[in-house]
Description:
Helix content: 10-25%
Oligomer: single chain
CATH class of the largest domain: Alpha Beta
CATH architecture of the largest domain: 3-Layer(aba) Sandwich
CATH topology of the largest domain: Rossmann fold
Structural class: alpha+beta
Distance between the termini: 52 Å
Amino acid sequence: MLKVSHLERTYPAQPGGVAVQALKSVSLSVEQGDIFSLLGPSGCGKTTMLQCIAGLETPDAGRIVIGSQTVYSRDERTQVSASERGLGMVFQSYAIWPHMSVAENVAFPLLQRGRNPGREQIAQRVNDALAMVELAGYGNRSATQLSGGQQQRVALARALIHKPRLLLLDEPLSNLDAKLRDTMRTELRQLIKSIGITAVFVTHDQVEAMGISDKVALMCAGKVVQVGTSRDIYLNPHTAFAADFMGSSNLIPCVISDMGGERAIATTPFGQIRARAAAGLRSGDEAILVIRPNAPIVDARPANAQDDAAQVTGNVASVAFLGEKIEVQVRLPRGCNLVTMMNTFDAPAEGQEIRLTLPAERCIIVHRDNAAVSTAGDVKLAEVAA
């Protein structure tokens, strides 16, 4: 449905500044009917990518194909205008006009496309669009009388009224409070899926991306660093950045001491840990051991020799109550801290000794990058290997 190839975009230097390369030969594909999220921190290039797809920003190089139509190609000197790309877009601010009624807001795209279908047909399509987003009967209301969630639905109805072939959403949930954001995330996914439209969703929120997407492109510094389902990126990150951004992680510096079979052995500041390994790693490599907070089995019985698991002992440094769960920070040997999650009713006391079992299938060794590591002291990799 959407294919982006080697897209580049550089913003010229401002007086006294330097040029910013927002997109660095980015390529990706979106399948028909998928909800595809562009996820990453501020400045990673995700919004620039969305604007290039929409035709609101002109790339410096590359190619964009929507359906069977090339809408941008530098080599072919093709640049289809935003209004001719057949897209719907929901902005972060919703762009709801306060001087218009709900129906007038929703009808606006039909009146701007130079092919006014007539008052009766417009009214019918507005009613259909509002019913689609569960706002039937709201057409005569002023836009200022709506809640944040209702305004978001109006923006969505407006984006869908001309039956676009692709829906673009630029952080549409960021202006909602936390509880409503959770509710609207679920409703938005159900609505998009019920319509069957392909959607590209931009967000910096990992929970949003995991909850709404069929696939995610994780971006950093103008590049796509990993593409896959939310579950795949969470369980099988390629780098420390991917592990750290897609969910919480303990990132432990390590040296790979053995790469036998499907498991590798990581030498860490607190001992040797058997784990899965990302592709491309070799024995002797300096790497990062990723342990998700929900990975350790707390205070388990000692593992048998044949068990594919390691055990470490530490002391509880802090306990944070988070309602349905508690976050426990465990101080391990050589100055390492490890965060784990426990049941609210099993909270240990600060200072208590605690034993953690680390099954190999729950841990993964990944490539090093600039992500921070989970150490309290100045533990060097040379010390790890010693």
